Amino acid sequence: MQKKQLEAAASFVSDRLKYEPTGHDAAHIDRVRQLARQIANQEGGSLFVIEMAAIVHDIIDEKLSSEWKLSPQQLEHQLLFWEVHTRDIRYIMDIITTMSFRHRHKQNRPITLEGAIVQDADRLDAIGATGIARVFTYAGAKGEPHYSKDTQQGSVLKHMEEKLLKLKDLMNTHAGTQLAEDRQDLMSLFIKTWKEECGLTDE
């Protein structure tokens, strides 16, 4: 039963987010799901709740336009349609409403192990080579510059330095922290090299 529920959710979300232009697309969802499974293999937790939360975690994200997202109420109805147990729906909704950068900035910690795992998986997809690709995708979709001398203006470089480079230290799990090491090193090297090429290094 749970396998069919996960398959139904994955198909629904994949169809809905297939062409989402900001890097919160179906490919991102699939990567987060796989990373969450990888972390759960070491950390434990309810694999069904972890996978379902990973699958639907972006479908109510405020960053998505109305063309792509659902309201929280619509998602709950959809989970009920897939016959997900009401207890699991509460767990899943709690997880995905405490995952945003806004909540991270406030250092809000997930209540459950499952929430910690899904949040770590989402963070991992924001750093490393994939994270670099995604931040440029998001900036292109939103019309943001690669970098700017105006420190108040949003840019790819500012987002990397002020948010993405902090994610490794915000990991909740040991497995997530280990997976973040190489991704963090790659992103740090990219930023250093990029700033040198663009003449942005301090004299």
Whole-number radius of gyration?
17 Å
Strand content: under 5%
Overall residue-averaged pLDDT value:
91
What is the architecture at the second tier of CATH?
Orthogonal Bundle
CATH fold name, please? Hypothetical protein af1432
Silhouette: globular
N→C terminal distance: 62 Å
Compressed to H and E, one letter per element, the order equals HHHHHHHHHH
Percent of residues in helices comes to: 55-70%
* Name of the top-level CATH class: Mainly Alpha
Parts with pLDDT < 50 across at least 5 consecutive residues: none
SS element count, helices: 10
DSSP summary, beta strand count: 0
Q: How many domains?
A: 1
Main pleated-sheet profile? none
Quaternary structure of the protein? single chain
Helix/strand/pairing class, anyone? Answer: mainly alpha
Protein name: HD/PDEase domain-containing protein
Pfam family, one: HD
InterPro entries: HD/PDEase_dom, HD_domain
Domain HD/PDEase: 21-136
Report what the structure shows.
By secondary structure, the chain is mainly α. The protein has one domain: Orthogonal Bundle (Hypothetical protein af1432). Helices cover 63% and strands 0% of the residues. It contains 10 helices and no strands. Helix 3 packs across helix 7 (113-124), helix 5 (86-96) packs across helix 7 and helix 8 (128-142) packs across helix 10. The model has no long low-confidence stretch (mean pLDDT 91).
